[in-house]
Amino acid sequence: MEKVAIAILNWNGHELLKKFLPSVVEYSDINNVSIYVIDNGSTDGSITFLKSYYPTVKIVLLAQNYGFAGGYNKGLEKIKAEYYVLLNSDVEVTKGWLEPMLEVLENNKNIAVCQPKLKSYVNRDEFEYAGAAGGFIDKFGFAFCRGRLFNVFEKDVGQYNTKSDIFWATGACLFIRSEIYFNAGGLDNDFFAHMEEIDLCWRILSRGYKIVYEPKSEVFHLGGATLSKTNPHKTFLNFRNNLFLLYKNLPKHNFYQTIFARLILDGIAAIKFLLSFEFRNFCAVFTAHLQFYLSISKLKSKRKNNLQLTTTNLHTTMYNKSIVADFFYRGKKYFSDLHFNP
To answer: Comparing C-alpha atoms, which of 224, 216, 33 is closest to residue 122?
Structure first.
């Protein structure tokens, strides 16, 4: 069995591979580390390109596009390694990016997942949207990051240069123990894409493990390579998957009130889209809720299984306030404004 498998999921990403794979190959040349591309049924010549220019990169071929979650689940089943690195195809890695992350996992068996410092490929002194300096959620399930609250991005001036516990690690560059990945059930195929790593991390936390941010490792993420932030389909996935996330993982004591509050907040968001003449995003929220209601029977089964395997609901890395209220009404635009020290 290999020590580390770097797994890059690809779907018609020829240009991204051409641009970003060179750094991965150059800076991952250490013993017992292999690079895999899991291909989600590409038709753009990606595989021909890999075979021609990167013969050392191993290829896992899938018959169709199974999405982010399904693609990784099916691909990783065919890869045997102690640790997986789920790496987006639009990430540029840097010299020495692997070693600090492996040290974190090797030195503490209770740490199941970790992520590096994630910065913007375009604005290289800023933190990047998808994970920044580690992810958190508030009591209503809204995700945010140290270094990025909603659309406000902090510059990296060393303020987050300390290793720390987090609630979720970015799916753009996620290090995880393979055994725990499969024991926790992997990524949820029904999410298809977006927020599935938060769901996985919540399940892992609830089983008593830790998730850590390690700033000694630094990578640069392009972001938006699959769907832009304003794409209505992304709006749909984010609203639907957030409801999936809450339904599956909330503890019993605050389940109903949190779901009810979140439905109200989503309704307010939909009205805001409507008043802004963003009709496609308004419809996306409506469709997301409709699919959530139609999925409740299936979600009940997943929730029952999660609760049976839960060993703790005390998560100090969950923000026990409303990040929406803090950001939009109280004017707290930076992580330091929250006075949140998990």
So the answer is: 224
Q: Which residues are CB-neighbours of 266 under 8 A, at least 6 positions away?
A: 239, 243, 285, 288, 289
131 alpha carbon, distance to own chain's centre: 7
> Interior CA angle at 120 toward 200 and 27, to 5°?
80
Q: What is the pLDDT of residues 289-301, one digit of tens each?
A: 999 999 999 999 9
pLDDT digit string, tens, across residues 96-128: 999 999 999 999 999 999 999 999 999 999 999
φ and ψ at residue 217, rounded to 5 degrees = -105, 135
Compute, in degrees rounded to 10, the torsion defined by CA atoms 307, 114, 134, 40. Answer: -80
| Residue 120 and residue 127 in contact, taking contact as beta carbons nearer than 8 Å | yes
pLDDT tens, position by position, 143-175: 999 999 999 999 999 999 999 999 999 999 999
Second-level CATH architecture of 2-221? Alpha-Beta Complex (3.90)
User: Which residues have a Cβ under 8 Å from the Cβ of 253 and sit 6 or more positions away?
Assistant: 313
User: What global pTM score does this model have?
Assistant: 0.95
183: Cβ contacts below 8 Å, ≥ 6 apart:
none
Ranges of each domain in the chain: 2-221, 232-338
CA dihedral 54, 60, 65, 66 (to 10 degrees): -140
Residue by residue, DSSP assigns 282-314 as: HHHHHHHHHHHHHTHHHHHHHHHHHHHH-----
Strand partners, 91: 221
Take residue 177 and report the two structure tokens written for it. Answer: 């123990």
Residues 6 or more apart from 303 whose CB is under 8 A from it?
Answer: 247, 248, 249
Can you say whether the dihedral through the CA atoms of 208, 179, 187, 144 is positive or negative?
positive
pLDDT band at 183 (very low <50, low <70, confident <90, very high): very high
Question: Comparing C-alpha atoms, which of 237, 207, 222, 32 is closest to residue 129?
Answer: 222
